[in-house]
Amino acid sequence: MEARLLLEDGTRLEGEAFGAESSKLGEVVFSTGMTGYQEVLTDASGYGQIVTMTYPLIGNSGINRHDLEARQSFIHGLVVREHATSPNHRQSEGSLDRWLKECGIPGIAGVDTRMLTRKIRAVGTMKGILSTTGAPWDALAEKLEAGSLLRDQVARVSTGTIHSSPGSGPRVVLMDFGAKYGIQRELIRRGCDVVVVPWDTPAEEMDRLGPDGILLSNGPGNPKDIPEAIATVGCLLHRHPLFGIGLGHQLFALAAGADTEKMKFGHRGSNHPVKDLTTGRTWITSQNHGYTVRIDSLAQTDLTVTHIALNDGTCEGLAHPHLPAFSVQYHPEAAPGPHDSGELFDRFLASLHRNQEGTAHA
């Protein structure tokens, strides 16, 4: 069956349909990772996006439960150069095509993803519609013009209840803005008593949980679309040690008085170099974001830049000089991606222990 992808600038791409028979509108983006397509597709930070994979062959290792980073995929479409129909991997439990069908996600293969990526790099991400239903171009154009991109993604992906993974170590309250499973795995691996709470949980309710620290998770969309979360983080900042990742990093910055802005085409992939300004060391990181903290806005805050992206000089990390609070834009849980920056979880735990010792002495 034929699939069609229409962009808001009028670009038309035709290819082979796979996945679900559906028409979905979303923001067309690209991801540069050579591995880990399953983690990319189940990262809630990609909610509502039509994801173009720059690596040419996708689906060759199939799908398995172990590599899921959320209970389902939240993307609105998948664009690939070549779709592997016969996966071959010892952990494979099924094909990408079958899994996309189960998730209701359309896919298009056989298109020039190199050209599409270059277009997005030149003009920026844009709205698009991907259809595998056989709908004519005129009908797709009408839907594209009438449709709008989502602004309530966080509420759609966050947990609806408070739940916990008991441990013998410090209690960490994880604010779920679309948290990847890898974040919780890293905390549990270090013995933390993890309590996951919905994105809109009030600061007072989190206080009653008796946290030793707060972790602000990754998530989709514009951080300014959830002003109530910014206010909550502003309260928590002065009460508990805090670590922000991805969207959590942006919320931390906004709560401290900084500003954020939409990037031209964002950072998505598992091969982004980031320099740690405190050590001079460069990390290769996993990233998935379309907004960034404006470095020029930090002059009006107490925050300092700790990490920068070497490709474009954007802010990748922040720290508060007087409070036990820091954040990074990239994903230290490395799913997918290198494990270079996993030590940030150790740094967070060290700040919890120092805070506990200081409280005991006081």
UniProtKB/TrEMBL annotation:
PROSITE patterns, alphabetized: GATASE_TYPE_1
Positions bound to L-glutamine: S45, G219, G221, L247, Q250, N288, G290, Y291
GO term, biological process aspect, one: L-arginine biosynthetic process
UniProt keyword terms in alphabetical order: Amino-acid biosynthesis, Arginine biosynthesis, ATP-binding, Glutamine amidotransferase, Ligase, Nucleotide-binding, Pyrimidine biosynthesis
Catalyzed reactions: L-glutamine + H2O = L-glutamate + NH4(+); hydrogencarbonate + L-glutamine + 2 ATP + H2O = carbamoyl phosphate + L-glutamate + 2 ADP + phosphate + 2 H(+)
Keyword Nucleotide-binding included in the entry's annotation: yes
UniProt-recorded Gene Ontology molecular function terms: ATP binding; carbamoyl-phosphate synthase (glutamine-hydrolyzing) activity; glutaminase activity
NCBIfam families from the UniProt entry: CPSaseIIsmall (TIGR01368), PRK12838.1 (NF009475)
Protein's job: Small subunit of the glutamine-dependent carbamoyl phosphate synthetase (CPSase). CPSase catalyzes the formation of carbamoyl phosphate from the ammonia moiety of glutamine, carbonate, and phosphate donated by ATP, constituting the first step of 2 biosynthetic pathways, one leading to arginine and/or urea and the other to pyrimidine nucleotides. The small subunit (glutamine amidotransferase) binds and cleaves glutamine to supply the large subunit with the substrate ammonia.
Subunit structure: Composed of two chains; the small (or glutamine) chain promotes the hydrolysis of glutamine to ammonia, which is used by the large (or ammonia) chain to synthesize carbamoyl phosphate. Tetramer of heterodimers (alpha,beta)4.
Official protein name in the record: Carbamoyl phosphate synthase small chain
Gene: carA
